[in-house]
Design goal:
With 457 residues, this protein is α/β, with parallel strands linked by helices. 35% of the residues lie in helices and 15% in strands. The chain is globular, with a radius of gyration of 22 Å. The two termini are 43 Å apart. The structure holds pyridoxal-5'-phosphate.
Length: 457
Amino acid sequence: MNLTPPPPVNATTSALKTTTESELTRDEVLALRKEYVAPATFMYYKEPINLVRGHMQYLYDETGKQYLDALGGIVTISVGHCHPEVIAKTKAQIDKLQHATTIYLHPALPLLAKKLAEKMPSADLKVSFFTNSGSETNDLAMTMARLFTGNLDILTVRNGYHGASLATMSAVGHSTWRFPIPTTGNLHHIAPGYCYRCPFNLKYPDCNVQCARDAENVIRYSTSGKVAAVLAEPIQGVGGTVVPPPEYFKILYDIVKKYGGIYISDEVQTGFGRTGAHYWGIQNWGVTPDAITMAKGLGNGVPISAVTTRREIANAMTGKIWFNTFGGNPVSMAQGLATLEVIDKDGTQANSQKAGNYLKEKLLGLMDKHRLIGEVRGLGLMLGMELVKDRVTKEPATAETADVMERTKNHGLLIGKGGFFGNVLRIKPPMCINTGDADFIVDALDKVLNEIETGKV
Ligand SMILES: Cc1ncc(COP(=O)(O)O)c(C=O)c1O
């Protein structure tokens, strides 16, 4: 299969239409967006880019300019934009049957559920619910945990992100993403395993992983003394690629079990081999969860999400009818299945590890040259670089981070940012990137960090 990028789009010189591929110019799209789309939907870049095409790890704007997508559509493009094998299977499904709902049988849904069961870290995690977004699946997982355990209180981690529905917004540990409205109760935030900015100002390993152990105090003092679950990301994504100390989740798991809860791993960003060594992020920490929630990379760009769990936990939902119109949609299911098949066939997880290790090594190498880099962290192709004004005070370099993003865009590289202070560069490309792409990322960052540090306008 030819996976080389298509030739750039040739822009025409028409005054009204400056593109051969887009019906509208960038400025027209921007004007429409400003007039008709709710302003809370924020955009990256002072001059937002108008994307018209994607192919594997590359995106193209209306002028034909190629960008290396090192954010992967916010960690959603797992095997590559418009991966030809995935798209062929999706198109075949659209031609046959485009909508059904779960009130009828259709083959794609149980086939994807079977595939997910085969990928689980334990044979007990066997049954799946399908929904359409990460928020929905986390919402559902929390409901299920409460029904199964009979307990109300749920622990989530400070600096974590789980979605924008009312319940998941309440679970989010980040004021940036929480509106001042009454949130749902019985959600309690525990300390993150964020060694670079330790919540207890301690040093690992002398700290005895106090961040995880403190969860017991939260249960004792802030809950009824019983919990339904903990919901946590194995590596915090939106929070700025926060990798906990290796014992963090095992300690947390034991505490949650002691107080009657189940362990829900939010793998919306970390699943499908992104962390390299393992298919699921939580496997890096030696914990077998009771439920895995997933979205984003499962569908390589279609709205899809799922929670896979043990049958007895899922049984807790049988007392009422649970229905989701588009959850299990044949097109999403076909694309999800095709994506997982490509991950197996293309050796995507192994590539994530190989390309990720290579890239991380090179990013670490940049630390010797650039004082702005406070820490490089992550696993596989889930990488982050925290920028600080001063390595001793660790004052966040928020404006500089935004500047890096603007400048790398001009060099044809799209990266993301995260962290409470918006000072962590997030590098999470489609998992098909090669070492040449990794070099391109490092060279672009080297150049722009140099420009910023030397005050070049
Ligand atoms: C870890 C995690 N969980 C849940 C969500 C929510 O997903 P969605 O935006 O599809 O609702 C996100 C989104 O970024 C996420 O990163």
